[in-house]
Design brief:
alpha+beta; Aminopeptidase; seven-stranded mixed β-sheet; 8 helices; globular
Length: 213
Protein backbone atom coordinates (compact mmCIF):
# COMPACT_ATOMS: atom_id res chain seq x y z
CA UNK A 1 0.00 0.00 0.00
CA UNK A 2 1.87 3.01 -1.23
CA UNK A 3 1.35 6.75 -1.29
CA UNK A 4 3.60 9.37 -2.83
CA UNK A 5 2.83 12.91 -3.93
CA UNK A 6 5.73 14.15 -5.96
CA UNK A 7 6.79 17.18 -7.91
CA UNK A 8 9.97 18.38 -9.62
CA UNK A 9 12.93 16.08 -9.11
CA UNK A 10 16.15 17.68 -7.84
CA UNK A 11 18.21 14.74 -6.52
CA UNK A 12 21.32 16.79 -5.77
CA UNK A 13 19.41 19.05 -3.40
CA UNK A 14 17.44 16.18 -1.88
CA UNK A 15 20.46 14.31 -0.59
CA UNK A 16 21.64 10.70 -0.67
CA UNK A 17 19.36 7.70 -0.39
CA UNK A 18 20.16 5.99 2.92
CA UNK A 19 19.57 2.40 4.04
CA UNK A 20 17.71 2.02 7.32
CA UNK A 21 18.89 -0.05 10.26
CA UNK A 22 17.01 -1.14 13.37
CA UNK A 23 17.79 2.25 14.91
CA UNK A 24 15.93 4.01 12.08
CA UNK A 25 12.80 1.84 12.20
CA UNK A 26 10.78 4.04 14.57
CA UNK A 27 11.49 7.25 12.65
CA UNK A 28 10.71 5.60 9.30
CA UNK A 29 7.47 4.24 10.74
CA UNK A 30 6.54 7.71 11.97
CA UNK A 31 7.02 9.21 8.51
CA UNK A 32 4.85 6.57 6.87
CA UNK A 33 2.14 6.81 9.52
CA UNK A 34 1.96 10.58 9.13
CA UNK A 35 1.59 10.24 5.37
CA UNK A 36 -1.02 7.48 5.56
CA UNK A 37 -3.21 8.86 8.35
CA UNK A 38 -5.86 10.36 6.09
CA UNK A 39 -6.02 7.64 3.43
CA UNK A 40 -9.52 6.27 2.94
CA UNK A 41 -8.35 2.73 3.64
CA UNK A 42 -6.60 3.78 6.87
CA UNK A 43 -9.65 5.68 8.07
CA UNK A 44 -11.59 2.46 7.63
CA UNK A 45 -8.94 0.22 9.18
CA UNK A 46 -9.22 2.22 12.41
CA UNK A 47 -12.39 4.29 12.41
CA UNK A 48 -11.69 5.94 15.78
CA UNK A 49 -9.58 9.07 15.04
CA UNK A 50 -8.01 9.36 18.53
CA UNK A 51 -6.86 5.72 18.36
CA UNK A 52 -5.71 5.79 14.74
CA UNK A 53 -2.14 7.15 15.15
CA UNK A 54 -1.12 4.46 17.64
CA UNK A 55 -2.91 1.65 15.79
CA UNK A 56 -1.52 2.69 12.42
CA UNK A 57 2.02 3.12 13.74
CA UNK A 58 1.87 -0.24 15.48
CA UNK A 59 0.84 -2.12 12.37
CA UNK A 60 3.22 -0.28 10.05
CA UNK A 61 6.06 -0.86 12.48
CA UNK A 62 5.67 -4.62 12.10
CA UNK A 63 6.30 -4.33 8.36
CA UNK A 64 9.13 -1.81 8.67
CA UNK A 65 11.06 -3.86 11.23
CA UNK A 66 10.60 -7.04 9.20
CA UNK A 67 11.87 -5.30 6.06
CA UNK A 68 14.93 -3.93 7.87
CA UNK A 69 15.85 -7.53 8.68
CA UNK A 70 14.76 -9.34 5.53
CA UNK A 71 14.43 -6.72 2.79
CA UNK A 72 15.52 -3.15 2.14
CA UNK A 73 14.27 0.04 3.76
CA UNK A 74 15.51 3.25 2.16
CA UNK A 75 14.94 6.80 3.29
CA UNK A 76 16.05 10.36 2.64
CA UNK A 77 17.88 12.55 5.18
CA UNK A 78 15.59 13.83 7.89
CA UNK A 79 13.23 10.89 7.27
CA UNK A 80 11.36 13.06 4.77
CA UNK A 81 10.42 10.01 2.70
CA UNK A 82 10.83 6.26 2.97
CA UNK A 83 10.42 3.15 0.83
CA UNK A 84 10.03 -0.36 2.22
CA UNK A 85 10.96 -3.27 -0.05
CA UNK A 86 10.58 -6.99 0.54
CA UNK A 87 11.59 -9.99 -1.58
CA UNK A 88 8.63 -12.02 -2.75
CA UNK A 89 8.58 -14.87 -2.01
CA UNK A 90 10.25 -14.23 1.31
CA UNK A 91 10.02 -15.14 4.99
CA UNK A 92 6.85 -14.41 6.93
CA UNK A 93 6.82 -12.21 10.00
CA UNK A 94 7.32 -14.55 12.99
CA UNK A 95 4.23 -14.56 15.19
CA UNK A 96 2.48 -12.09 12.89
CA UNK A 97 -1.07 -12.89 13.93
CA UNK A 98 -0.35 -12.34 17.62
CA UNK A 99 1.63 -9.16 16.89
CA UNK A 100 -1.19 -7.79 14.74
CA UNK A 101 -3.77 -8.43 17.44
CA UNK A 102 -1.52 -6.82 20.04
CA UNK A 103 -1.07 -3.55 18.13
CA UNK A 104 -4.48 -3.22 16.43
CA UNK A 105 -6.81 -4.62 19.09
CA UNK A 106 -10.46 -4.67 18.06
CA UNK A 107 -9.52 -3.50 14.55
CA UNK A 108 -7.46 -6.63 13.85
CA UNK A 109 -10.22 -8.28 11.75
CA UNK A 110 -10.16 -5.34 9.34
CA UNK A 111 -6.39 -5.56 9.00
CA UNK A 112 -6.67 -9.28 8.35
CA UNK A 113 -9.26 -8.64 5.65
CA UNK A 114 -6.87 -6.16 4.03
CA UNK A 115 -4.00 -8.64 4.23
CA UNK A 116 -6.10 -11.36 2.61
CA UNK A 117 -7.26 -9.09 -0.21
CA UNK A 118 -3.74 -7.88 -0.98
CA UNK A 119 -2.33 -11.41 -0.89
CA UNK A 120 -4.99 -12.58 -3.34
CA UNK A 121 -4.04 -9.79 -5.75
CA UNK A 122 -0.29 -10.43 -5.61
CA UNK A 123 1.28 -11.97 -8.73
CA UNK A 124 2.99 -15.33 -8.36
CA UNK A 125 6.29 -14.74 -10.24
CA UNK A 126 9.22 -13.76 -7.99
CA UNK A 127 9.53 -9.99 -7.61
CA UNK A 128 10.46 -7.12 -5.35
CA UNK A 129 7.41 -6.03 -3.36
CA UNK A 130 6.95 -2.39 -2.34
CA UNK A 131 4.38 -2.53 0.48
CA UNK A 132 5.10 1.00 1.70
CA UNK A 133 6.28 4.20 0.04
CA UNK A 134 5.48 7.50 1.67
CA UNK A 135 6.54 11.13 1.81
CA UNK A 136 6.01 13.07 5.03
CA UNK A 137 3.14 15.56 4.60
CA UNK A 138 5.52 18.48 5.21
CA UNK A 139 7.60 17.47 2.18
CA UNK A 140 5.07 16.27 -0.36
CA UNK A 141 5.42 17.78 -3.82
CA UNK A 142 9.23 17.93 -3.64
CA UNK A 143 9.97 14.92 -5.85
CA UNK A 144 11.12 12.72 -2.98
CA UNK A 145 9.02 9.70 -3.88
CA UNK A 146 10.37 9.72 -7.42
CA UNK A 147 13.95 9.86 -6.15
CA UNK A 148 13.42 6.77 -3.99
CA UNK A 149 11.73 4.91 -6.82
CA UNK A 150 14.43 5.73 -9.36
CA UNK A 151 17.16 4.67 -6.95
CA UNK A 152 15.70 1.24 -6.25
CA UNK A 153 14.55 0.67 -9.84
CA UNK A 154 18.14 1.06 -11.03
CA UNK A 155 19.18 -1.79 -8.74
CA UNK A 156 16.23 -3.94 -9.78
CA UNK A 157 16.90 -3.36 -13.47
CA UNK A 158 20.52 -4.41 -13.00
CA UNK A 159 19.35 -7.82 -11.76
CA UNK A 160 16.31 -8.14 -14.04
CA UNK A 161 13.91 -8.08 -11.09
CA UNK A 162 10.30 -6.96 -11.61
CA UNK A 163 8.39 -5.04 -8.94
CA UNK A 164 4.87 -5.03 -7.53
CA UNK A 165 2.91 -2.60 -5.36
CA UNK A 166 -0.60 -1.53 -4.43
CA UNK A 167 -1.16 2.19 -5.07
CA UNK A 168 -3.29 3.72 -2.33
CA UNK A 169 -4.91 6.42 -4.46
CA UNK A 170 -5.55 7.41 -8.06
CA UNK A 171 -2.98 10.17 -7.67
CA UNK A 172 -0.33 7.70 -6.56
CA UNK A 173 -1.32 5.39 -9.39
CA UNK A 174 -0.55 8.15 -11.89
CA UNK A 175 2.91 8.57 -10.36
CA UNK A 176 3.65 4.87 -10.66
CA UNK A 177 2.46 4.83 -14.26
CA UNK A 178 5.12 7.45 -14.96
CA UNK A 179 7.71 5.15 -13.40
CA UNK A 180 6.88 2.19 -15.61
CA UNK A 181 4.22 0.40 -13.56
CA UNK A 182 1.08 -0.94 -15.21
CA UNK A 183 -2.21 -2.14 -13.74
CA UNK A 184 -2.02 -5.90 -13.22
CA UNK A 185 -5.50 -6.66 -11.94
CA UNK A 186 -8.76 -5.08 -10.86
CA UNK A 187 -8.74 -2.57 -8.01
CA UNK A 188 -8.81 -4.06 -4.52
CA UNK A 189 -12.21 -3.13 -3.13
CA UNK A 190 -12.88 -3.36 0.60
CA UNK A 191 -16.05 -2.51 2.57
CA UNK A 192 -15.53 1.24 2.90
CA UNK A 193 -16.46 4.30 0.90
CA UNK A 194 -13.49 5.81 -0.83
CA UNK A 195 -10.62 5.01 -3.13
CA UNK A 196 -9.66 1.37 -3.65
CA UNK A 197 -6.12 0.06 -3.92
CA UNK A 198 -4.58 -0.44 -7.35
CA UNK A 199 -2.32 -3.49 -7.93
CA UNK A 200 0.54 -2.53 -10.26
CA UNK A 201 3.48 -4.35 -11.82
CA UNK A 202 6.73 -3.09 -13.30
CA UNK A 203 8.92 -5.19 -15.56
CA UNK A 204 12.64 -4.65 -15.20
CA UNK A 205 14.14 -2.57 -17.98
CA UNK A 206 16.79 -4.26 -20.12
CA UNK A 207 20.38 -3.03 -19.84
CA UNK A 208 21.19 -0.05 -22.01
CA UNK A 209 22.89 -1.12 -25.21
CA UNK A 210 26.07 0.70 -26.29
CA UNK A 211 25.84 2.57 -29.58
CA UNK A 212 26.73 0.45 -32.59
CA UNK A 213 29.20 1.40 -35.28
Amino acid sequence: MTLSHTGPETPAAIGPVLTATEEDAAAVTGTIAAAFADLDVCRWLCDDPPSRPAVLSGQLGITVRHAVRHGTVEYLPGYRAAAVWLPCPGPDVPGYDALLTEVTGRWAPRYRLLDEAMLAARPSPPHAYLPLLAVHPAHQGEGLGSVLLAHRHAALDATGTPAFLEAASARSRRLYLRHGYLDCGPPIVLPYRGEPLYPMWREALPPAQPPSG
